[in-house]
Write a structure and sequence with these properties.
Blueprint (H helix, E strand, L loop, with lengths): L3 E5 L17 E16 L4 E5 L5 E10 L1 H10 L6 E8 L3 E8 L9 E2 L5
Parallel strand pairs: 1-6
Antiparallel strand pairs: 1-4, 2-3, 2-4, 2-7, 5-6
């Protein structure tokens, strides 16, 4: 059965409070994205945005997830809603899926290349 490669950058990473949602899936490795994105600190969790002009290489992890897990993660991330699942360019892996913010960036929010900042 085909699996979906998913980039995670926040609470879903190993050791994060929501990692249990991925614990039975295949960990592929620690990676960085192309330098076209930013992680936004939303306090309890991060958000990801595309920043073509002043982007950073985001640090995260890749997992190979099955369809059931992906559907559960879409529900958890409220897709489509505050987040959407779209492709992201990861160094050495090409395009994989990631959850992006689907809301405006809060004014004054801190940004960086990993979370926590």
């Amino acid at each position: 059965m085909a699996k979906t490669i998913l980039f995670v950058y926040g609470t879903l990473k190993r050791g994060g409070r929501n990692y249990f949602r991925l614990a039975d899936q295949e960990f592929v490795g620690e990676v960085v994205t192309a330098a076209r994105y930013r992680v936004i600190d939303l306090s309890a969790h991060p958000g990801l945005i595309c920043d073509s002009f002043d982007g950073l290489a985001i640090h995260g992890e890749l997992f190979a997830v099955d369809a059931k897990c992906l559907a559960e993660l879409d529900t958890f991330e409220e897709v489509p809603g505050p987040f959407v699942r779209e492709l992201i360019d990861v160094e050495g892996h090409g395009e994989v899926w990631a959850y992006y913010m689907n809301t405006p960036v809060p004014e004054g929010a801190k940004t960086g290349d990993r979370w926590p900042l």
